[in-house]
Design brief:
By secondary structure, the protein is mainly beta. It is built from five helices and 19 strands.
């Protein structure tokens, strides 16, 4: 079983903390028909952090050609080994050697800190570990400088160029984790403005609202992993967790609980559903919390 935590500060307004407890045994219960796979991390990130929609997409930055990388390889390696990241190099597997020698590795250039000099960014698979890693070489008058003090273990999706750049990134859940993390912040503090973990088995909406809207529960609220009512008691899962688990219910709240609506969807049977994120200040109104997740579906007639 894995225990993960998350924090999000949405648009500088509502801050909520969600701790996600899950196990592979729940995959069968909360699995969907691939809704997650139909939406890219970039698209999900833009929905969670709408302020990033106008930022620069890192995947669109111009990659160095093989000839350019060969010419600058020694300087790139020297700057990397002169940085604190050198301490994380492994004798049996060198990140900098592996990536420079990998013909599929993408080193891209862009003026990230808006100082008139091209910087270089690698954001892709970590050759010596699970998941992704990102490293930035800032251009200087004499070459490049790596300012990281520790590995940035996520894929940078979007960036807002500035003297202190802002970045949105995506970290694949490691070690068979059932959740991925979406992050918003700076290079110095990647989670400064938000970090949201999403269970891979949560059904995502097909369409999102242009803008998030706030809501309040007008009666008892059930937060679900999919837009369907499954309230049956799960004896097997309840015994495994040591707490009562009912169908696809992740949490229940009393009237007055608040959050933000990201999407709406009408089921074939005519029931309307809203895809929401719950506010932290509504935690005191929780009456059931088997999955400890504040992100999912509620019936529209439960909120206003």
């Amino acid at each position: 079983m894995l225990l993960c935590s998350l924090y999000i500060n949405q648009n500088g307004a509502d801050m909520f903390v969600i701790r996600v407890i899950f196990s592979a045994v729940f995959f069968a219960i909360f699995a969907t028909s691939g809704a997650f796979a139909q939406t890219t991390p970039l698209q999900i990130s833009e929905k969670i952090f709408p302020s990033t929609r106008e930022w620069k997409t890192v995947a669109h930055f111009v990659p160095l050609t093989k000839k350019e990388l060969l010419a600058r390889g020694a300087v790139i390696k020297s700057a990397y080994l002169a940085s604190p990241l050198k301490e994380f190099e492994q004798k049996s597997c060198s990140f900098i050697d592996k990536t420079l020698q990998d013909p599929t590795a993408q080193f891209r250039q862009f003026d990230i800190n808006d100082d008139g000099k091209f910087d270089i960014i690698y954001s892709g698979p970590a050759p010596c570990a699970e998941g992704d890693v990102s490293v930035v070489w800032f251009g200087t008058a004499t070459g490049y400088e790596v300012k990281h003090t520790s590995p940035f273990q996520s894929l940078i999706l979007k960036l807002r160029p500035a003297q202190e750049p802002l970045i949105s990134s995506f970290a694949v859940g490691c070690c068979a984790s059932l959740s991925d993390e979406y992050i918003l912040g700076t290079f110095d503090n990647p989670r400064q403005d938000g970090a949201l973990k999403i269970l891979k088995t949560v059904e995502l909406p097909k369409l999102y609202l242009p803008q998030q809207t706030s809501f309040v529960a007008i009666r008892t609220l059930a937060l679900r992993s999919s837009p369907a009512i499954h309230d049956e008691y799960s004896k097997e899962q309840s015994e495994f967790m040591g707490i009562a688990v009912f169908g696809n219910i992740q949490r229940r709240y009393l009237q007055g609980a608040r959050g933000a609506v990201l999407a709406r969807q009408t089921h074939a049977n005519g029931k309307e559903w809203a895809f929401v994120i719950m506010n932290q200040n509504s935690d005191a109104l929780m009456t059931e919390n088997p999955m400890d997740v504040g992100f999912g579906w509620v019936m529209v007639d439960e909120i206003r």
